[in-house]
Amino acid sequence: MKPAQAQRQQPATARDGLTPRAQDYAQWYLDVIRRGELAEHSVVRGCMVIRPHGYAIWERMQRELDDRFKATGHVNAYFPLFIPLSYLAKEEQHAAGFAKECAVVTHHRLKSKDGKVVVDPESELEEPLIVRPTSETVIWAQYKNWIQSYRDLPLLINQWANVVRWEMRTRLFLRTAEFLWQEGHTAHATEAEALEETRRMLEVYADFSENVMAVPVIKGRKTPGERFAGAVDTQCIEGMMQDGKALQMGTSHYLGQNFSKSADVKFLNKEGKLEYVYATSWGVSTRLVGALIMTHSDDSGLVLPPRLAPVQVVIVPIHKTEEERAKTVEEGRRVAEELKAKGISVRLDDREGIMPGAKYYEWEAKGVPLRVEVGPKDLEKGSLCLVRRFVAEKPGETPEEARKRRKTFLPRAEALAGIAPALSLMQSELLERARALLASRTRVIDSLEDFERFFKDEGGGFAWVHWAGGAAEEDEMSKRFETTVRCIPFPDQIPEAARGAGACILTGRPSTQRVLMAKAY
Q: Which end of the chain is more exposed for a tag (fewer CB within 10 A), N or C?
C-alpha cells in the first residue's frame, strides 16, 4: 500500500484535521466545506468558487424550487447585471438601504501606459452603473413598457442570477460579496392580490425547507427596522442551526406601490381609471447550502438529505485480484442500472489505484446518503452490504451504537428493494432530528434575568419573549446580548405556552405579542 493511500484511510479527524463541532463550530463548518469539496475562496476578495459537488447541490435546489414556482404560475426571465445609478436613486429608502454594499462601475475601457495596464481616464461613463445588489429598480423600468391595462396583470416573473453586495466580513455560502440566488418580481392589480402572493411564496419556501431540505422553520414578519429596503412588509422563514443560532433562510416582500410609483408604472383598471400597480419581490440564495451544512452535518463531514443529494447511492466494488475486480465491478454495474431504473441517482466508483477505505471516507465527507459495498464474499452469498450515512439515535443509545447500525448485510433482492424506503426514512429522520433540536433549544422567557442566563450560560437558542420595543430597544438588546428580533411570528407559529398578553421583556410596557429572539448568522 502506498503511504498516501494508508494516510487516506485513517479516521477523518486525524487524517485531514476536521475540527469537532463541540470544539470550534465555525471552523468545523469550514472544514466540512473543504472536505466535501463544496466551495473555496476565490482570488477576488470576499468571493467564492463553488466546486462541482457544491454546485450540484445548488442545482438540485434550483430544480425543486423552479418546479414550485412554475406550479404557482410564474415564468423565468433575465434582466441586466448593471443598473444605472439614477434608477437605484429613484426609490430613496431602497437606495439608502443598499448604499454601503454597492459596487460601482465608472469606466468602460483599459489602456496600456508605461508597460502597465491601467484604467483609461477618457473612458469615464456618463452615468455610473451599479452592479446589481437586487433588481427591483431595473426590472420595474421594464415593467413600465409591459403593463398598460388590468389585462396585463398579474405579471409573475422570476429570475435566476448572481448579485453583488460588497460585504466586509464574509463566510462561504452564508455571506459573500457575490452570490447566486433567485428573485421573484410580481405586479398585481390590487393590494389583496399582492398580499396573497407575498404569503404564497413564503409558504413555498417553508414547504421546500421542511420537506426537501429537512429544516424546520418559524414563519413570521420582520420588525420595521429589519424590513427589506423599500418594502411595506417583509415576511421570512427562520431556521435553527446546530449551534442554536438562527439563519434567515428566505424572505418575501410586499412592496405596496413604492416601486411602481418610483418607476411610474400605472395601469388602466376595470373602471377605466389609472392607478399604480401593487408589487412583491421574494428570494432565496446559495445561503441555503450553508443552512443544509449547519443543520445536518456531523464530525465526519457533510450529511445530505436524500432529496437534495446529487448522488443518492454510491457503489464501491471491493477486490484484491483482477478476476475479483472484473466480477465485483460487473455486479456494481448491474446494481447501478437497476437503481437508475427506479429513479435513484447512482455513482459506481470503480476508480483504480484508490483503496476502498479511501473511497468510503471521500463519499462520507461528501454526504452521500447510502453506500453499497460489493465484495467477493457478497457475490458468493448473493448479498449486498448497505451502509447508511445517517441513522437516528434510539432512546438511550450512544452515537457509537447508532453508528454500528448504519451497516447491514442483506440478500440482494431484499437489499435493492429496501434502498428507496431507506432513503425516504433517512429524509424523515433528518427532519425529525432537526425538529427535536429546535424544540430542545427553544424557551418561553418572561424576565431579562432568565433571558441573560439562557444566552450567556445555557448556550442559547430561540427565545419567545414579549416585546413592545422599537428600533432603539432592538439595538440595546443587540449590544447587551448579541440577539435580534428574528421575526414577529404568525399566530399559528406561536406555541400554546407563549400565547396571551404580558409585559415587554426590556421596557416592562404592556405587550400583546411574542417575538422570536436569537443570536443569528
A: N
209-245 pLDDT, tens per residue?
A: 999 999 999 999 999 999 999 999 999 999 999 999 9
Buried b (16+ CB within 10 A) or exposed e, 420-451: bebbeebbebbbebbeebbeebbbbbbebebb
Predicted local distance difference test score (pLDDT) of residue 4:
34
- Identify residue 57 by its one-letter amino acid code: I
Domains in the chain (CATH in brackets) are 35-296 (3.30.930.10), 311-422 (3.40.50.800), 442-518 (3.30.110.30)
Residue 229 exposure: Cα atoms within 13 Å on the Cβ side: 19
| Cα angle 250-254-289, degrees, rounded to a multiple of 5 | 10
Spatial CA neighbour of 521 closest among 160, 203, 242, 225: 242
> Alpha carbon of 332 to those of 257, 324, 341, 342, 421: distances in Å?
60, 12, 14, 16, 20
- The C-alpha cell 439608502 sits at 96
Per-position b or e across 33-57, b if 16+ CB within 10 A of its CB: bbbbebbeeeeeebebebeebbbbb
Binning pLDDT at 50, 70 and 90, where does residue 383 land? very high
Total residue count of the chain as it appears in this document = 521
User: Cell 451544512 appears where?
Assistant: 293
Exposed, middle or buried: residue 258 (CB in 10 Å: 0-12, 13-18, 19+)?
buried
